[in-house]
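Milestone M4 deliverable, item 7.
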Amino acid sequence: MLNSSPANFRLAIKTALAGCLGMYFASLLHMPQPYWAAISAMIVMQINLGAAVKQSWIRFAATAVGAAVSIPFMAVPGQRLLVFGVAVFVTVVLCTILHLEDGIRLAAVTIAIIMLVPNIGRPWVPALNRFLEVSFGILIALVVAEFVLPSTALESLRHALAEKFLQLDTFLSALLLRFRGENVVDVEGLRASLATLARQNTDFHAHGRYEPARWSARRITLVKLLQHEERMSQAVETLDAACDGAFCGGINLQWEPEFSELCAGISAALQRIAEGILTGKFWTPEYDFAAAIQALDARANAARISVGSSAPTVDATPGTATLEGVLRSHTIYFALQSLARELAAAQVTAREIVSEGSTPSSPI
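Output delivered:
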């Protein structure tokens, strides 16, 4: 299906504008081959500022390496193709030494453009021209990324992180329904969606390191929430393994109603945090996970004592008198507790999202 999101439309506009401005101003400055400025501007333009800065640095450094390596090899007499091959080899090795692996191909392309295109004059002139044209294109792209329909990795992370909390809530509900043997939505689709969001969040986090706001309080708070979310996802993965579709045993009835109340509290907290990330408001009072976990522990301990003092067949888990049923039920039990404890910490972090001077609202 065609991806027509607003972000892609903004990227299309900014890429076209950066290419046109690069070509126009490079021609205005009488650069020998102004189209390289346009090409560079379009290559480094990305969906957010952090990604654009990262790509700009890679292209700038790779072009500098390629141009610098080409100068001495341009003056070497003899078989041009052999000299070109040695120059490419040296460039790749140098990029590896400089930890510029992402720019290896760009540096090699720079070598090819400088050495294989016929030039008349001093050997350093084409290298300098390519470097200046590429650098000028990068500058144009960064100006456009900053001032035209600006989009930052920090903003992208904020929205994607809120979506991840909501998706975790949906996925967790589906797992628990499946464990009880009820019909649920496409679990595989939900799992794939969570994996996609996880990759996006990782990218946005990495891109945010290249933005001016990388030391801002808002970004630090979002990164903390991202770390909470990653640990919660690990607990949900444990639940996913325990809630296998081939096993529909249900929850030990002696854990109720505390078990269901904890699940409801987890769902409400996930939604509350997602809303707080998006709106900057965090509804109070927060769910008391410590009390809920303590109540569930007390109920589970009472159930174990009851089972231990009764006949071995007294297992309130419907239809699951097997060892597998007991292990799956208790795996879910402990995974939910881990998830709840992480959510309790995430609620504290989420308060930092609230704008200074705002008054916490009452629950709806």
